[in-house]
Amino acid sequence: MAKHAPRFLELVNESRKRIAETTIEAIKSRLDAGQKFHLIDVREDDEFAAGHLPGALHLSKGIIERDIEKVIPDADADMVLYCGGGYRSALAADNLTKMGYTRVTSMDGGYRAWHEAGYLIIHPE
Q1: Is 90 helix (H, G, I), strand (E, B) or coil?
Q2: pLDDT tens string 54-83
Q3: pLDDT mean over 92-106
Q4: Can you name the residues that pair with 85 across neighbouring β-strands?
Q5: SS (H, E, C) 44-84
Q6: C-alpha dihedral over 70, 101, 5, 119, to 10 degrees?
Q7: Average confidence score pLDDT of the chain
Q8: Domain ranges in the chain?
Q9: Which of 79, 83, 90, 104 is the catalytic position?
Q10: CB 113 within 8 A of CB 24
Q11: Torsion of CA 12, 13, 17, 22, to 10 degrees
């Protein structure tokens, strides 16, 4: 796992104080139950292309704030964001909350924890 810079971690920890977080197990249960929500992968294009969670929509951290209103105009839409480990998704969730989205959650552990748990990964051809 990458060692993150102290100021980056400080920024993430500040964001985490303002957002909701969830676990990979909770999201797996929601997917298995067929619950409807927006699962958004905020990783970079190459990361998403290498594999992603089932049903995930790709809006990378670099564009999510710019494009979210076109893709998901409903400010009350249920959204779960994930990244590689839960840091970038926490930052993105914080920004979407500041933009007026009311049901945004970050998946702690991200893709890495999902993969390590042996849960289904979609590998595009």
Answers
A1: helix
A2: 999 999 999 999 999 999 999 999 999 999
A3: 98
A4: none
A5: CHHHHHHCECCCCEECCCCCHHHHHHHHCCCCCCCEEEECC
A6: -80
A7: 96
A8: 36-116
A9: 83
A10: yes
A11: 70
User: Residue 2 pLDDT > 80, yes or no?
Assistant: no
Contact 70, 97 (CB under 8 A): no
Q: Catalytic site residue 83?
A: yes
Question: d(Cα 46, Cα 50) in Å, to the nearest integer?
Answer: 6
* Residue 3: band (very low, low, confident or very high) from pLDDT cuts 50, 70, 90: confident
Distance CA 94, CA 89 (A): 8
The mean per-residue pLDDT over the stretch 35-50 comes to 97
Amino acid identity at 99: M
The CATH architecture that domain 36-116 belongs to is 3-Layer(aba) Sandwich (3.40)
